[in-house]
UniProtKB/TrEMBL annotation:
A Pfam family it matches: GFO_IDH_MocA
Protein name as annotated: Gfo/Idh/MocA family oxidoreductase
Keywords, ordered alphabetically: Oxidoreductase
The keyword Oxidoreductase belongs to this UniProt entry's keyword annotation: yes
InterPro entries membership: Gfo/Idh/MocA-like_OxRdtase_N, Gfo/Idh/MocA_oxidrdct_glycsds, NAD(P)-bd_dom_sf
Sequence ranges assigned to domain Gfo/Idh/MocA-like oxidoreductase N-terminal in this UniProt record: 6-124
Length: 321
């Protein structure tokens, strides 16, 4: 496939509009049709992009014959229906995380992706971050020594975060919460670099008398035999923070705030100077285009990886009942 890839987008919230902006300027893609059930969102984006068609009917994107691929940025409960319909129609699918909320749906999505053979990917922000690639290089070179632990720490004074206030589903227990929305990125990173996460103990705390998302999360997993500790909190007067730390016998790395990398050899943390592209929706679209064309690509999570992450995420909710 040498021509530009015809792309449809379902969902025009924070992530959908961010990827639309990246795709509209991308040489590999031609954005043809975008959909959102929110008429105001459709009107807002239509004013920005005169050469793209818009609709309030997401099913029209899946059914469109002039599309090669679909990007899905809806609330998670809709991912399976749109993704599976698109794959059955022979379209490649790029889906926001989490893959799904219901494990049976996630398994069905991964199975269909495998049997149809269409290109499929989940949009994990850390898949091609330069910090991720540097840690991956150091691990491959043996610079960390024997890996002894991984720790994930997340803190949110406000949940949902300010840029997500229009996404009301994020504040609900049914499909929202920071474990699904944010921990999933770091679960993917752990799965990719260390191994699949196997729960040992997990716990969520919820506000009393409310059907709201979690206010704290604590978990112990093992990945490739390495203990992985998870601690997250929301709604407390602490600075917003994101930390993923991997400690080895020779060296430790700490990834902070989605792309800042620090290293320690048993003393104070030192900043690591990173080279190359930071990684973004644009670069992940480039990887997705290579996957669609059957070209080699590595820094992209497929549905199989998304399902492994979903199992780790939903282990928290299964325990909570």
């Amino acid at each position: 496939m040498s021509k530009r890839i015809g792309l449809g987008i379902i969902g025009l919230g924070a992530m959908g509009t961010e990827l639309l902006e990246a795709a509209a300027s991308h040489d590999d893609f031609k954005v043809v049709l975008c959909a959102d059930v929110n008429e105001a969102a459709v009107a807002r984006e239509r004013r920005k992009y005169s050469g793209i068609d818009f609709t309030t009917e997401p099913e029209a994107v899946v059914a469109a014959e002039n599309l090669d691929a679909v990007y899905i940025a809806t609330p998670p409960r809709f991912h399976a229906a749109y993704a599976m319909a698109a794959m059955r129609a022979g379209k490649a699918v790029f889906c926001e995380k989490p893959l799904a909320v219901d494990l049976a749906e996630g398994e069905a999505m991964a199975d269909l992706a495998r049997t149809t053979g269409v290109a499929n990917a989940v949009n994990f922000a850390l898949a091609d971050r330069h910090a991720t690639l540097e840690i991956e290089r150091a691990l491959g070179a043996g610079e960390l020594g024997s890996v002894g632990s991984v720790e994930i720490r997340l803190a949110f004074p406000q949940w949902p975060r300010a840029f997500q206030t229009d996404a009301s589903w994020l504040s609900g227990r049914a499909e929202g919460g920071f474990v699904r929305e944010v921990f999933s990125h770091f679960a993917y990173l752990t799965d990719r670099l260390i191994g699949e996460l196997e729960p040992v103990f997990v716990s969520l705390d919820f506000p009393q008398g409310k059907d709201a998302s979690e206010i704290s999360a604590f978990g112990l997993f093992r990945a490739g035999g390495v203990p992985v500790r998870v601690f997250g909190q929301a709604g407390l007067a602490v600075p917003e923070s994101y930390e993923w730390t991997i400690a080895g016998s020779r060296r430790a790395y700490r990834l902070r705030n989605w792309g800042e990398l620090e290293v320690s050899v048993g003393e104070s943390w030192q900043n690591v100077a990173l080279s190359g592209a930071r990684g973004s929706e644009y670069t992940r679209l480039s990887a997705f285009a290579r996957a669609i064309r059957g070209e080699p690509q590595t820094n992209l999570a497929d549905f199989a990886a998304g399902l492994r992450v979903q199992r780790a995420v939903e282990a928290f909710h299964a325990k909570a009942g």
